[in-house]
Amino acid sequence: MSDSVMRTAGRSPDERAGRLSEIELSVNGRVRRLAVDPRTTLLDALRERLGLTGTKKGCDHGQCGACTVLVDGRRINSCLTLAVMHEGDEVVTIEGLGAPDDLHPMQRAFVERDGFQCGYCTPGQICSAVGMLSEVAAGWPSHATAAADAVAQRIALTDEEIRERLSGNICRCAAYPHIVAAVRSVAEGDAG
Amino acid sequence: MRAFTYERATDARAAVAAVSEPGAKFISGGTNLLDLMKLDIEQPSHLVDISRLPLRNIEDLRDGGLRIGAQAANSDVAADARVRTRYPVLSQALLSGASGQLRNKASTGGNLMQRTRCPYFYDTAAACNKRRPGAGCAAIGGFNRIHAILGAGDSCIATHPSDMAVAMTALGARITLLDTDQSVRHVDIADFYRLPGDTPHRETVLRPGEMITDVVLPPPPPGRQLYRKVRDRASYEFALVSVASVLSVKQDTVRAARVAFGGVAAKPWRSVEAEAALIGRPATMATYRDAARAALRNAIGRGHNDFKIELAERTLCRTLAHLAAAS
Ligand SMILES: Cc1cc2nc3c(=O)[nH]c(=O)nc-3n(C[C@H](O)[C@H](O)[C@H](O)COP(=O)(O)OP(=O)(O)OC[C@H]3O[C@@H](n4cnc5c(N)ncnc54)[C@H](O)[C@@H]3O)c2cc1C
Ligand code: SF4
Ligand code: FES
Ligand code: FES
User: Euclidean distance between the first and final Cα of chain A, in Å?
Assistant: First the structure.
């Protein structure tokens, strides 16, 4: 986005109100240009402007994780961030992880292990789990990591670790045991 | 959400200049501000995006301390090897807060500035002096289970929800502020937050337009460190009560101690009373109980939150016992 579009300071509030901002970002590997009201969350931009309805809106307040996507490789809640803040970023949604005929290992594991019932939380669970495994690979500790291991940067991905690290994804169908099994199978490399 | 205009700041000086407009606010991770804007509790007319400012670094200081940039994400600070080894209480506090997704967005500056989770503050139909000065406080006499037991007044009994700030308080952190006239000042975290008094809407000593640029941790105090958080569910939940403590025990005697509580007041609550009751005394449960009683001596329950007084005492005793056992 050019600076002149972004830097609206100095104009009167009346002139500025309702002005659309143009943004360019990469979504699932494709560059997308959009003119958005600055109020548009990344979640609404994905669902309503780009037709990527795989990403779900559960609470719209950061409390459920249904809206989880990967931005520059990190998992975030797309409901608590503005689309205009993602100029130039690389966004990956559940649609970008894999397709029905070419599933991502995590998607396949959720199918094979029955990691869902209604499926509403599932895209968020899967994006979150993918982001989480790269955090583990980077040696990030969690609240479930023993103090000594946290210092030594040794992460054993126990079920307790998986549960803690995925606590930001609520499943109202309580498919948790199968979600943990699916994630564990990918972490152990027997689902790919 | 109300309409606002948006601009992305390219450097810190431009950011403070841009936010000096009336109605303008900084946005970092957005995880607290956007939540509150959706509910019409925050109503900025202009947002200055500071999330891309070059303030993400975590740097060693010559004196053995650490400088954490205001834009460093909570997850990056928690995972930093120096924080994990030298300031484990800070890593633990961060990891006990929010969720993996939120920590990836939440910034150090935004975490310090996050607002209370008082349900009446969140309910625009309720009376709240913090939202509308003079309107009254629905929590006093209302359902006040999560509210303050220390330092509160008749105008507001809200707590500060941050875990990170409690650890930083125990560590004696200093906050660096950049003013709109480009001047820089340093404020001890102990002096950064205000108690409610008659002006609960004024939560910190930050001047209008001032920006947090970094947090400086002095060299780690002697002793072992621990953050213990007690909450209604095991994860992804704010603290009812938390304790950040640093304890040094030699020959069964406490040599040095730091104690800070979360979930009990409008600010992270450093208890110099508890620290004084510990230092030089035998490292025994009797000492910890004395320290806990000293810390909570002036606590006042409001009905639903009466349990927090005993909970805070017990949480401190457990934390100290754990630290002493590890020494
Ligand atoms: C569901 C949920 C659960 C949570 N659980 C916890 C928890 O258990 N423990 C916990 O501690 N927190 C918890 N949080 C809160 C979370 O830690 C905060 O939302 C986050 O730290 C705010 O950081 P941010 O960068 O997103 O701030 P923003 O939302 O961008 O900003 C918050 C405020 O800070 C101001 N601000 C931001 N940066 C600066 C700066 N550099 N200088 C001056 N002002 C600034 C903004 O103007 C705004 O007023 C939770 C949040 C959610 C949504
Ligand atoms: S406790 Fe404070 S924030 Fe809560 S309703 Fe009362 S004045 Fe508002
Ligand atoms: S929709 Fe974003 S966390 Fe619930
Ligand atoms: S499968 Fe229904 S909410 Fe998780």
Answer: 39
Opening angle at CA B324, ends B323 and B327, nearest 5: 90
For the entire predicted model, the pTM comes to: 0.96
CB-based contacts of B263, cutoff 8 Å, min separation 6: B146, B159, B161, B238, B239, B240, B241, B242, B308
- A63 Cβ closer than 6 Å to some ligand 3 atom: yes
Which atom in ligand 2 lies closest to the alpha carbon of residue B129?
7
Residues A4-28 have pLDDT tens digits of: 334 444 444 444 556 899 999 999 9
Ligand (nearest to CA of A60): 3
Coil/strand/helix, residue A139: coil
- CATH numbers and ranges of domains, chain B: 5-51 (3.30.43.10), 224-326 (3.30.390.50)
Q: In this predicted complex, what is the ipTM?
A: 0.97
Ligand 3 neighbourhood includes A73 CB (under 6 angstroms): no
Roughly what angle, to the nearest 10 degrees, separates helices A122-137 and A176-187?
Answer: 40
The count of other CB atoms within 10 Å of the CB of residue B284 is 15
**Distance separating alpha carbons of residues A185 and A85, to the nearest angstrom:** 35
